[in-house]
Amino acid sequence: MTDNALDRLTLAERAALTSGESLWRTQAIERAGIPSITLSDGPHGVRRQPDDGDHLGVGHSTPATCFPPAVGLGSSWDPELVRRVGEALGRESRAMDVQVLLGPGVNIKRSPLCGRNFEYFSEDPRLSGVLGAALVLGIQSQGVGAAVKHFAANNQETDRMRVSAEVDERTLREIYLPAFQHVVTVAKPWMVMSAYNRVNGVYASEHPWLLTEVLRDEWGFRGVVVSDWGAVDDRVAALWAGLDLEMPTSGRASDASVVKAVEAGALDQELLDASAARVLALVARAQPGEGTFDAGAHHRLAREVAGQCAVLLKNDGVLPLGFQDSVAVVGELARTPRYQGAGSSHIVPTRLDDVLTEMRALAGRELEYAPGYRLGDAGRSPELEEEARAVAARATTTVVCLGLPAEDEGEGYDRTHLELPDNQRALLDVVAATGTRVVVVLSNGGVVRVADWDGAASAVLEGWLLGQAGGGAIADILYGEVNPSGRLAETIPLRLEDTASYLDFPGELGTVRYTEGVFVGYRYHDALDAAVSYPFGHGLSYTEFGYSDLDVHTRGSGEELVVRVSVRITNLGDRAGQEVAQVYVAAPSNDVRRPARELRAFRKVTLEPGASTTVRFYLAFRDFAYFHPVRRRWTIDPGTATIHVGASSRDLRVAATLVLEGSKRPVPAAITPDSSLADWLAAPGGLDVLQREMRPPAETGQSHSRFLTEPALRMAGSVPVRRLARFPGAYLDPERLDKLADEVNERAGW
Ligand code: BGC
């Protein structure tokens, strides 16, 4: 293919380039030597299917390593680790002749009920963006493209192909877009996948503001925008808005409609050409399949990674277990792992480890086991419970594996509650009543409520969904072979009713209003200072860390502001471990309500016992700014900002303040007769002019109208001056208002 490949194509061929040939392939133009390329799900493994497969995760695909889904990776808080996963995904894609892997998903977990939360990293945009970028960089380092998805505001599954997410611009800019922006600008993904839903009434795949103004003009995206599978409603509108490639194939009729639109002058050919050229550039950079991958090495990597993702929520000292300890294992999930979610991301794994086998392997002996409940059947079973009770009664410690059955969460539908199945809850009580020490291990893609039972457990390990080697990783952590270092990427609330979007999820009558605005996840709980079960950023280790020597150094101001934050982290215990230092910024604002503090940077460090290290972070303008809804630009207000560094959004260890100058205020709009009295008075010279004009007759003995004196001024400040002039006692001539406004504007230099 040469640079002018486009010139040699007919109009029909150009149109053909902008839609798929099959479920997973783009159209080849053989006459012109343009091959087709293969796109595959993703993203925590390669889901390579035959061309006539399905995109629902139902049919077969070639075995590939199933790494922890994003819910797991998100909890690692470790971009280096995520990048290594990306590299492995890239290698497997190459080996399976896949040119673009469809991921990562960086949508924000707006509600814990979203059925697809297991495919997303976090409730926080910074964490999602940094980890998403790391995965893209890893994948693309192998010559394979990534497609960051689902752009944008795809935060629920209910009615996902039609629902309109009604979100104000500030909320989009501060919460739902930054992860995409970070990935696009830092990792330069080959593709962006547009979402199914509408955003403020317009389909995301036909949204010129999202796909062209924001994505290309503001963020400089140069790659291909692909539709989610079947997301295009009107092909011509989509091309016009900036969508380059419709997937999967929608048949030749759709291409013909594009040709017709160009011929009829309804679609500018330049737009079609620009999209076709971008697809050509994508095809040109795509690499043919090559090599094989080492399934054993990738399985070991999957285990290492999973070990960094599980989050130790609670531990009274029962963990780590000793190899000789009297330990029993209970729960069907111990031998039938739940390790990924259902839907298009479903991977056929190369191997599958379970907790029970791996614990026995590490302990080097049999451990007593009872399944305790059936999966996929929430009913209680007296026989299974009795068997579990007997097993637990004989053990000093019982590991109880609980979690969500596969059908409780998946792509295409949302959850309706946060509870564990009844039979699992009952089993926990039965086991705890024996007096054994209870260690709960959870497997779930979305948050489950723990508040009514975690008091009965000595330890709780939140395993999320950890991929095919998760069983081994859990065993490693339980026996102390690995020191847990995962941190919560989402809050575990006390109750579903406590979550910010509770009243507006999943919406009604085709619309979901994001009424909570920027107060999503911990931003909401922290604004209320409300109790939660476990806060964002929380996670225990088998050692302890100290924070000291916080130093904040500022250079420049306004958009040039750079703040260097350094802090010393010390491993205070007698075991090597990893800490995630989290930087939260509380910044002032005059015009809008802001979260109490927001995560702006983080770093995972490994420290030997007694060792310490100084971690440095660099913050910039955007880390202190908010998106001003009226001025429609990022703004810093003057005042004092606080920088907190700590181990969770609620465990802030050290803090420092700095004084911010604030962005330049734009020149105010000129005064008119309809401006309020307060606006007139705020204009330099406005008071003089009004005092001169608003003159009562001499017999009143007043020097000027009472409206210009306190407390009337306080009450009348919002009255437009044109209307004020009509009030008795204003003594203002309505006929002179235009002239007076000119005079004020002139004096103020406006
Ligand atoms: C999902 C995408 C996926 C695509 C292809 C859609 O249903 O939303 O995430 O990449 O199918 O399978």
Provide key terms for this protein:
6-stranded mixed sheet, Immunoglobulin-like, Rossmann fold, alpha/beta, TIM Barrel, 29% helix, 5-stranded parallel sheet, globular, binds beta-D-glucopyranose, 750 residues
SSE inventory with pairings:
Blueprint: H1 11-17, E1 39-40, H2 70-76, H3 79-95, E2 100-101, H4 125-140, E3 145-151, E4 164-166, H5 169-176, H6 178-187, E5 191-194, E6 198-199, E7 202-203, H7 208-218, E8 224-227, H8 235-241, H9 252-263, H10 269-285, H11 295-309, E9 311-315, E10 327-330, H12 355-363, E11 368-370, H13 382-393, E12 397-403, H14 422-432, E13 437-443, E14 459-462, H15 470-478, E15 511-513, H16 522-528, E16 545-555, E17 562-571, E18 577-586, E19 598-607, E20 612-620, H17 621-624, E21 626-628, E22 633-635, E23 639-648, E24 651-660, H18 677-682, H19 686-693, H20 712-716, H21 721-724, H22 737-748
Parallel strand pairs: 1-2, 2-3, 3-5, 4-6, 4-15, 5-8, 10-11, 10-12, 12-13, 13-14
Antiparallel strand pairs: 6-7, 9-14, 16-17, 17-20, 18-19, 18-23, 21-22, 23-24
Helix pairs in contact: 1-9, 1-10, 2-11, 3-4, 3-11, 4-6, 11-15, 12-15, 13-14
